[in-house]
Amino acid sequence: MTLSRDFFVARANVWIKIAQMRKKICYISINVFQKYNMGDKDMHLKKGIRQGISTMLIAAMSFGNVMSVMADTPSVKMVSSENVTVKNGNYRATVNFSEGQLGGVLRSKSSDVNADWNTMTETMVPGMTMYLDGTGTAKKAAVSAKNTLTTGDGSIGASGVELTGDLTGVKSYFMFPDEIVYLGAGLEDQKNSDDKIITVVDNVPVTTATRVSIPNPKNGYYVVTNEAKAGGGWEKAVDTATKGVHARNWLSASDLSGNGNPNENPLQWKYLFTDSITNSNVYFRFPTKGNTVVQSFELWMAGTQYQYTVKAGGRQADLSGQTMVDPDTNVLSNSNEIQAAESLTNGILAVNKWSDGTTELTNNIANVTLNQPMSMLMKKDESRGKTQITVGKPSNSKEGNLEFTVHFSANQVTETSGEGALVSSDETGDGLHVKLDAAKMTKPVTLEVSYQLPDIVDGDVIEVVRGNEKQVELPTGFDKEGVTWSAKFVKPDGTYLRNAGSSKKKYELPDGETDGTRTAGDTSADHLVTVKKLTNGNAIITGKEKGSLVLVAKNTDGTEKKFKVEVLYTVPENLPKATEEDYAKIRKTWKESIVGVDLAREEDGAEILASMNKAAETAWNAYAYKGEDSCPDIPWKADKGAAGVASTPYEDDAAEFRPAFKKVLSMATAYAAEGSNYYQNPDMLKDMINIMDYLCTVCYTPKTQTNNWWTWEIGIPKDLIPILMLIYDSLTPEQVKLYTEAMYFFQPDPYHEGAIGTASTHANGYRTAQGANIIDCSTTAVSLGALRKDSEQLYMGSEASSGTFVIQTVEDSSKLAADGYASGFYADGSYMDHSRVPYLGSYGIEFMKGGVKIPSLIGGTPWQYSGEVQQNLEYYIVNGFGSSMYRGLMLDSLKGRSVSRKGGSNQNAGREAMVIILQMIDSLSDEAKETMLSTMKYWMEQNPGFVDSLEGVENLAIKKRAREILEDSSIVAGVEPLHKSFPYMDRAVHRMDDYLFAVSMYSERTQNTEIMNDENRMGWHQNNGMTYIYDSDQDQYTDNFWNTVNPLRLPGTTVVPVNIGTGKPDSSGYAQGGDYCSYESWVGGSTIGNYGISGMSFSGAIANKAKSADGEITYAPNLKGKKSWFMFENEIVCLGAGIQNKGMDLPVETTIENRRLGTDGENVFVVNGEEINLPIKEANIKELAEHSADVSGTEFDGAEWTHLEGNGSSAGIGYYFPEEGTSIRARRARNTGNWSDIGTTEGESTQNYLEMWFDHGKNPTNGSYSYVLLPETGKEETENYAKAPQVTVLANTSAAQAVYQKELGITGINFWEDKETTVGEVTCDSQASVMMQEEKDGRLMVAVSDPTMKNKGTITLKINRPITDMINSDSDISCRVSESGAELTFNMAGTNGSSVYAELQLKASIYPYAVTLKKGDEQTFELRDFNLNEEVTWSVATDMTRMRSNTTIDENGVLKIDEEETDGALLVTAETASGLKLHAYVSLGKDAAIDTPDDLPLPEEMQNLQKLIDKALDDPDGTEVYDENAIKKAVKAVQDADTEKVAEYLMDSVLKLAEVYQQVWENNGREIGEDVETVGIARELEPVDAKGMILSMYPSLKVASPSNAVLVINGEEDAAVLSETALSNATPSNATPSNAVAKAAVFSAETLEKIGGKPIVKDSFCEYVLSLVREYNEDQDTRNLLPLKTPIKVEVSVPDQLNPEKPILAAVADADGTQHPLEVTVNEDGSAMTFVLTRMGTLILANQAENPDTPNAPEKPDDPGVMTYEVFIDDEITGGTVTADHLTGPEGTKITLIAKANLGYRLNYLQVNGKTVKTTAKGTYTFNLKQDTEVTASFVKLLAITDHSDRKDRDRSDSDGWVRSGNGWKYQIPGGSYAKNGWQQIGGIWYAFDANGMMRTGWYLEAMDNCWYYMKPDGSMVIGWQQINGKWYYFNPATIGITGWSSQGLTWNFDIQKNQGIPQGAMYKNQRTPDGYLVDEQGAWIQ
Questions:
Q1: Nearest to residue 542, comparing CAs of 347, 759, 390, 389?
Q2: Which of 488, 988, 1189, 1221 could pair with 1183 as two cysteines, CB 3.0-4.6 Å apart?
């Protein structure tokens, strides 16, 4: 029976409707079927429909998503408008764009394209981008498709999606015949969550056959179920996210078995990453999903950009031993604008263009220009001369044209898809321009383009221009089917060049060997040309890059035919027209730069000639074959083995034979220098030519490189080029060609470095030259052009170098973190190199050397630079070097790893820069020239050795110009002050008249340092906020600083002092490790004039790199904090806040200073005016790095200021500490180090240092610091500054850091958060750096920057000050003025970290705006009235509701600070008659002003606790059904947390938790509750309400009920009632206590004078004893004490004694009298008050007295008749001593008594004039002397229970049960068995026995209750005080509370659920004993 098409369509509709009703599948249009022409394909379609229906039915009943796939013909089927499937012989893949799986990709197995490989049913869907939270849980993002792109022909395809929602960005999927390329770009989290963005690579169900290859925790290819289990090699990756760590870039997976060798078994899929696994941020794990065995293999990448390829099939053996495996495909672009990839093997180009506008895409298939967003697949079939182009339109495109141009000549264009969308196809001079009608593109449109093959070339020499094609005819007699074509290199001997290793084997690989990505064999020239074979056997070659090669046709019989191919950079017509004179001019200029014109006539010429003669003579005389007819072997025998690698032959080791070129250069220089002894010497010339013949035919020839590529490609040309320039006129053209052949081979193209395959380190492709390297390469090109008369080489050299002399632009600075930097100079004066390293002082200098050399060579020739290049070079000089040097020294912070070179000092680098400036100075514009002449004169005067250092003929003209400048009286020497922020480099430079301060930072954009080529191995913390002070001591950093300074204490840094690197070598053989970027973006600052501020959000988490040979390196992943620097005229304020760390056993330190001292190391160090003689501690730098040396220092508490004497003429540096009670540490060090310890050069030195630092302790939670640097400041000046500081710290928190400078009127604020934050009168809504400077005329300059460099929107700044209007501003700034002030909106897009400015006019202001004062100081505030004209009233307030001191301000604004002022900050207000308020801020040792919102981030531990509470309270359905386990976990966490912090931050949440906790108990049928019981006079507090008490009960739902938590409040005289009755315990006294009494402090109004340090109204004093108990039934007959584990909120009536209208003071006092103040809130009517309790004890209440009842101690009276009194101490006191700080004094003298007990005693009482007084915990008592006073005391022996120590081994007999066993005892219980493994009470005494029944002695930790016990030698348990090994310990004499111990017969059991007490005999620890003594956490008495 034959069924019609309609039948199948109808059936399809039936199944669709079924699926729709089941709500399981998406809607499917029958147009899918109707779009296909049935015709001859009817039978295929029928079969396809049948299979499609089956697929739909199965999908409808299970997965809920349908993919219709043609089984027999490749097809693309769109079930919805988004999903697409590609199927070919290698794999099937479906890209899913439906909701919930947007961007997911279902792939088949490569072995069976009809069988699924991965899973789409998990959260981690392969291909999707989502979140991964801190617990490792994957979470799908709420995203949808803003736009999709799809095209393809079924066997290949291109798809993509633009995301919107929680995540934004673009994703593409390019499906080639056997590879799928996944690209993601611009992925941004719009939620700003803390979760990581990840993209799932794969998620594979695991069976017993599944094998994968991963690098760690165990490297290898194994069966998953064998390794991912307990004890297996991958155990650590089970259920745990594991970061892949390895230099290789591949993983693999399969479930196929084979011949028994797993490596030979077929693979299902390979996973290839662009970079190493480590750098690509690859993660994996093996989840068990609640089962006992692993269920799947999850693989993902982390980051906002990704690029990876999955490759079908192959074998594990294809990968083994390889580090890097290149896919067949190349990624061309991966950006928000366009994503593209190509497959050269298949001739396919795939493109997704997302953005509007024209984009040109250069590639190796056919260059295209795309005018609109579209998806394109291009498949080029050279053999048929046809190209198929398939184009898909964006899903959001409806109409209009899609236009593109394909850049090749076409004969005919045909639309084969039948849509009729082709509007036009026009052949233009630039290619084929195509227009498609988008409205007609209901599906992707396919075009077939026919084009003309290029003409066949004649002859064996072929020239082809880059991008053009040539056809080469099949050689006669060759088999067109079997012939192969390849591109290779030929050595001079006619053999082919061979591959070098790319990893460890840096030499030509012998047959059979593999290294890195390379295998032994002929080196391919595919980087220069593309070769394709046609069906007729001919070849098409396409030029790619400039160079020479051979095209090889190889026949089936092995016969070869070679064609010499020259790829031209451009067509000759485009080259400048040149003459012989043009080439000669360049050679002449070059030669004269080496030997001058006539040195004998030049000043210093004779000396230079003598030096030339000596060097030439030495070299020539040492030449082995001097005077002979040839050089048959090594010219200088001593060079053999002197350098390079010993195993490499001399002729193959460039490092070994390069010295020969240097010696020839010495000879050539003397030969060419007129006036030398060897000028034009024919014998020398003959020997030089012989040597050159040898070197350039045996050594330096086209060959495979060994070792470092740089020597071959850049190093040797630096010597060879000048040789040839000097002797050119004596050489034949053939000799010139021979001697330059190797240079031309290695450097044919200045845009690239090296010949791929032959270069030892070019593992990742034909590397593009950048920065200083491109200048070197361009110099070689210019020389080749001049020597070989090659205009193209000169043209390329000029174009490449001039193209480098640009100001690099950054279109989107938010991408710098992902993309890195192009090498070169930037608009802010930065110079970046190596992608992320500031290098102005190293590579920047090398870069500029070319900048002055090349223009001087090609000036006046057809290849000279344009005027724009000259302007850029000027910019580099003025804004780069001019801002980055101090007195001729190059700043070390800009020198990168070169600081680790002995000869790379800041002085040498500075002199190199000065030479460059002198070479260019006369070509600068007038203004720039004037500036640089003054600067150079000043630098040369400050650096007197500079001129004399200019040696050699090359410096003659420079030296002459330098002297002219120095002697020119019209030039005024000087350098203007400046502040320069370098946002791109993360650097700041602050240069004043007598010092320069610099700070180096790092971020997600830049590295913390660079460690490379065995250099700078200890540079880990160089950019962690390191600060530099350059002053008159110019040698500070110049010589032997970096090789001797402690690398873990660099000044300014906040670090965990740990060695980050491993010191182990990488694949190159050099030690690496320790350089990386951070995850932080907030690094930068703002500038006003010559002043500026900088900030750095820092963390110890490593964002990239930081790897070693053994894998990833970890620093301090939990370290974080904020650092700021405020740079003014005479001081730099340094702040740190929010410093935290966890999980490390090392402290966090902020180094204030690490200054190199004088030779004797005796620079005077002063602290608070006192000279400090610190001991010198000696150490080696290696010991310091490994933390094996003693790095401890001397601690100084209460440091206010310090001073360090300077070296030489330097006045030294002062340090001021604005925060009261600052503690610092200092250490004087003598360090020894060798340059080889940190780099590759030698030289040992010992230097002296003064280290000064803050110790934040181990794992701080919120550390901070503040200090002020005073450069070039003497000791007296520092002391005076500390008395009257000019700066005030307004804020120093993790929300904002702010400082005000009084003299300058500058306020600087760094806002750290994207939320409204207020500091003083400034509120900012975003992360920002803000500066404001107020002028005396009321103009307020405002500067704002975005240090994150990510803000593409706005920053809004609210200034709450009276403002008239905005009088000036940069563009894109708006201002709205209101009565409350001004609101400024700054548009930050494109600002790239730089400051933008607005100028406002104030109506009025207070001066100073802020000030730092001390107690007793006086300050006059001035109202500056610019346009106000109103009278003002002055007032001052504290942070309290009322003033609580005698601090006052009068009507004239004069503020007087009380001598006893206790507040840390004051607010001064000037209020006008109209109600306008102006404020000023006063610091008294604390932050002066910060007003942050209530929703500031909680401390991290409180954030975590809040999350647990939120989870416990989660009730999404409103059913009040809660997760009991979550409730229990939250309650336990609250109990374990810091009670004070819980009360401060989470009280409301805790009370809500208590409600739910009680509800859950009740839901389980158990009653718990809360109650309050008042006893005696405490009833005056009724009614009393308390909430939260039940949370102190153990979080179990299984304890007895009903059960209540009861707060018992007793009057002081009623406390005994509680002791005797309320807390009686019914359990046996020999097992549990008979009493459990809350120990309370008891006070009286007579002895209590203050509460919380505040004076009280004594008549108002009240006290109550608080206890928390648990009662177990309603009759209250069973109670025990309940420890208060969580805070409770209490409301009580205000007692009659208290006046509610006056401030109420409250505190809870411990047994020792220590007070813990409470914050009390009184309700509106004054009837009740509320407070939060965090402890039990004595509640004391009183009104605060306005004036102290007890007067201050009077000053010494002037009247000599005033009575003097004495203190008499009883001399018969025993058991201890009593001392007094004064024994005599006038009335009112403050006397402090100290009572100290002897060992084994305690204080019983202390009496003063017969009255017992209460002492502090330390035994002190203070009183004012009013009369002669008698003092006595009583000390008693420590509490002891019956002592059995005399029974060391009493007689025991079998009759009493004791049985001797060896050296110990056992106890036989009735029945004959022995007591074992527990406790036994014998004769009223407790004993413990082990598992063998042996009696225990000594220390014993009871595992059941986790308590320590001590058993005497006779086995009896100690109770009471016991001295053990010289220390006193206290063991509980009687059980307290319910302990959980109970007896069943003779057996004692323990129930942990009931363990709330302290068992008898248990050691007290970290608490007070009942008799008032404190013991530490080890139980020892703290004496």
A1: 347
A2: 1189
Q: Flag whether pLDDT at 36 surpasses 70.
A: no
Report the pLDDT averaged over residues 671-700.
96
pTM reported for the whole predicted model: 0.63
Give the pairing of strands 824-826 and 807-808.
Answer: parallel
Measured over the CA atoms of residue 21, residue 22, residue 28 and residue 30, the dihedral's sign is negative
- Give the separation between CA 411 and CA 432, rounded to whole angstroms: 9
- Evaluate whether 1181 touches 1231 at the Cβ level (below 8 Å): yes
Contacts of the segment 994-997: beta carbons below 8 A, 24+ positions apart: 994/1031, 994/1032, 994/1271, 994/1272, 995/1029, 995/1030, 995/1031, 995/1271, 995/1272, 996/886, 996/891, 996/1028, 996/1029, 996/1030, 996/1031, 997/1027, 997/1028, 997/1029, 997/1030, 997/1127, 997/1132, 997/1269, 997/1271
What does DSSP assign to residue 1067? T
Contact 83, 65 (CB under 8 A): yes
Token readout for 1608 is: 């018992």
Label residue 358 by pLDDT band (50, 70, 90).
very high
- Helices and strands in the chain: count of H runs, count of E runs: 27, 124
Strand order from edge to edge, sheet including 1296-1301: 1287-1292, 1296-1301, 1306-1311, 1328-1334, 1339-1345, 1396-1402, 1363-1369
Q: What is the pLDDT of residues 1371-1386, one digit of tens each?
A: 989 999 998 899 999 9
Q: Give the pLDDT of residue 1112.
A: 62
Q: Which residues of 514-553 are buried (b: 16+ CB within 10 A; e: fewer)?
A: bbbbbebebbbbbbbbbbbbbeebbbbbbbbbbbbbbbbb
Cβ atoms of 1900 and 1912 closer than 8 Å: no
Distance between CA atoms of 1720 and 1726, rounded to whole angstroms? Answer: 12
Q: Residues 1034-1076: pLDDT tens digits?
A: 999 998 999 999 999 999 999 999 988 765 555 445 556 788 8
- Cβ 562 vs Cβ 552: under 8 Å: yes
From edge to edge, which strands make up the β-sheet containing 824-826?
807-808, 824-826, 831-833, 837-838
At 327, phi and psi to the nearest 5? -70, 165
Amino acid at 1544: E
pLDDT of residue 173: 97
Which strand (E) or helix (H) includes residue 845? helix 843-858
Question: Is the peptide bond preceding residue 475 cis, with omega within 30 degrees of 0?
Answer: no
What is the average pLDDT across 1119-1138? 97
Q: Identify the CA nearest to 1704 among candidates 1732, 1733, 1745, 1669.
A: 1745
Q: Do 1740 and 1649 meet the contact criterion of CB atoms below 8 Å apart?
A: no
Calpha distance 185→810 (Å, rounded) = 17
pLDDT tens digits, 654-673: 999 999 999 999 999 999 99
**DSSP labels, 641-710:** TTSS-TTS-GGG-HHHHHHHHHHHHHHHHHHHSTTSTTTT-HHHHHHHHHHHHHIIIIISSS----S-HH
Nearest C-alpha neighbor of 766 from the set 778, 754, 780: 754
Q: What's the number of CA atoms in the CB half-sphere (13 Å) around residue 1896? A: 23
Buried b (16+ CB within 10 A) or exposed e, 1597-1621: bebebebbbbbbbbbbebbeebbee
